[in-house]
Predict the 3D structure of the following.
Amino acid sequence: MNIKKVVYVISILLLSQALASAGELTQPEGLNYYNEGVRAQKAGGAEMAMNAYQKAMVIGLDVALYRKFIYNNVAVIYAEQGDLEKAESMFLEALRLDPFYRQANFNLGILYLRQGFCQKAAEYLTKTLNGAGNYTIEEEHHPEPK
């Protein structure tokens, strides 16, 4: 094996290791921003929550584990602000990632019910057992990323 091939192989190995480490470093930071958003949202700070959720998305929290929660929580903010079109879009995005995500199904069902779309509301409300009648914010405790 010549020296160029050895250097090439070593550089590929180092690059792949660096990329793996970078993913590990951003995950906790993204989770911190997500939790910051949840706390701000619960305290009534919609703008602060949106900023924190946006930072979490930019950092790249794992799609399967966290993005659905962010989409749901952002949709709740939009619904509470009266922007029902954006709320619907965000709930649907959360459900695109996980069609069985109970809180997004419930929240979308309530959104449709409040708009008088009873058939659509029934479709989504039957996918959940939560009957509280309020939009729900996804809590901070979630499974650790794999």
User: Anything to note?
Assistant: DSSP finds six helices and no strands in the chain. The helical segments are 3-42, 46-59, 63-81, 84-97, 102-114, 118-125. Confidence is low (pLDDT under 50) at residues 11-25. The CA atoms of residues 75 and 90 lie 5 Å apart.
